[in-house]
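Module 6 notes. Inverse folding takes a fixed backbone as the condition and produces residue identities as the prediction. Think of it as a translation problem where the source language is geometry and the target language is the twenty amino acids. Below is one complete input and output pair. Work through it position by position during the lab.
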């Protein structure tokens, strides 16, 4: 009797596992329009105030983790790769990143 119950249980499990699963059918899709992207005013980084802010950010944020390098120490190509990796680590906003980049590029080795 025990063997019969075990055999019936195994058969029920196999039949249940092999049963085709139902998939819900989507009758109609609703397309939602893409929300408009927020527009930000263009950041003017060529002003003396922006350059001074870039220097301040460079000196305070970069100095937290390591010794500062003089911007003249590297070329603009080298600074591009350095800033690409360091800006996210320093958690700079887009405006701060632009100011630091402008400051460093303006003072980089020519």
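Target side of the pair, the amino acids:
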């Amino acid at each position: 009797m025990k063997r019969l119950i075990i055999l019936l249980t195994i058969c029920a499990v196999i039949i249940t596992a092999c049963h085709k699963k139902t998939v819900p059918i989507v009758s109609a899709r609703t397309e939602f329009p893409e929300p408009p992207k927020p527009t930000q005013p263009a950041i003017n980084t060529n002003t003396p105030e922006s350059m001074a802010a870039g220097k301040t950010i460079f000196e305070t944020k970069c100095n937290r983790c390591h010794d500062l390098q003089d911007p003249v120490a590297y070329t603009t190509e080298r600074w591009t790769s350095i800033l690409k990796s360091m800006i996210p680590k320093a958690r700079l906003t887009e405006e701060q990143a632009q100011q630091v980049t402008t400051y460093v590029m303006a003072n980089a080795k020519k």
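Reference fact for the lab report: Residues 45-110 form one domain.
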